[in-house]
Automatic annotation (TrEMBL):
This is HTH psq-type domain-containing protein. InterPro entries: Homeodomain-like_sf. It comes from the Eukaryota. Gene3D superfamilies: Homeodomain-like (1.10.10.60).
Length: 78
């Protein structure tokens, strides 16, 4: 039996793609309302709304367990 987390990660990738498509349609004016875009693309409204105002997606965030920022790590490795 395959691990469960791979299925959920695949679901997250699919949702991220739909969020990006919805944001593009909102930006280009093809869809006027966030709620309509969320319904059309079958994604939750709140993540779409947060991304529309500039919040970084979870996929693009650095995990909390790191002690140094990416910039600090790069400075140490040079």
């Amino acid at each position: 039996m395959p691990p469960i987390h791979s299925e959920s990660s695949q679901k997250l990738v699919n949702q991220e793609g739909r969020i990006l498509l919805a944001l593009e349609d909102l930006k280009n004016g093809r869809i006027k309302f966030i709620r309509a875009a969320a319904t059309l693309y079958a994604i939750p409204r709140s993540p779409l709304q947060h991304r529309a105002v500039g919040r970084i997606g979870r996929v693009d965030m650095r995990p909390n367990r790191y002690k140094l920022t990416q910039l600090e790590e790069d400075a140490l490795t040079e």
